[in-house]
From TrEMBL:
<feature type="repeat" description="ANK">
    <location>
        <begin position="75"/>
        <end position="107"/>
    </location>
</feature>
<feature type="repeat" description="ANK">
    <location>
        <begin position="42"/>
        <end position="74"/>
    </location>
</feature>
<dbReference type="InterPro" id="IPR002110">
    <property type="entry name" value="Ankyrin_rpt"/>
</dbReference>
<keyword id="KW-0677">Repeat</keyword>
<dbReference type="InterPro" id="IPR036770">
    <property type="entry name" value="Ankyrin_rpt-contain_sf"/>
</dbReference>
<protein>
    <submittedName>
        <fullName>ANK_REP_REGION domain-containing protein</fullName>
    </submittedName>
</protein>
<dbReference type="Pfam" id="PF12796">
    <property type="entry name" value="Ank_2"/>
</dbReference>
<keyword id="KW-0040">ANK repeat</keyword>
Length: 122
């Protein structure tokens, strides 16, 4: 992983949307795609983090920049799992509009629908 990818994912992990959007809007498309696809040691992408925080503006920018909508982290969770498990309905709605795979199960055997049944969403 490059230093730029590490910094980008650190901003994502901290939920620093302003820095992330500033970076993404100032670089070429190929670099945006590369950063959107970068993974940390837990196999998390910036989209996983954005979905965990429910940051719809960043989620839309990442999905428009070529982020892997169905990326699986170290626990086999997808960005959709992150959004629904943290109760972020607008993020869930956007991902569904982007036609994410809804039947993927995490390492506990849980899919999106099972998580949705147990969560209070905003």
């Amino acid at each position: 992983m490059t230093t730029n990818e590490q910094k980008f994912l650190e901003y994502a992990r901290k939920g620093d949307t302003s820095c992330l959007l500033k970076i993404l809007s100032s670089i070429a498309e190929a670099e945006r795609v590369r950063l959107a696809l970068a993974r940390d040691v837990q196999k998390e992408t910036s989209l996983h983090y954005a979905c965990r925080f429910g940051d719809l503006k960043l989620i839309k920018f990442l999905t428009d920049s070529g982020a892997d909508l169905n990326a699986r982290n170290g626990k086999l969770g997808t960005p959709l799992h992150c959004a629904v498990s943290h109760g972020h309905l607008p993020a869930v709605r956007h991902l569904l509009e982007c036609e994410v795979e809804i039947d993927q199960k995490d390492n506990s055997g849980v899919n999106f629908f099972a998580v949705l049944k147990t969560q209070k969403v905003d």
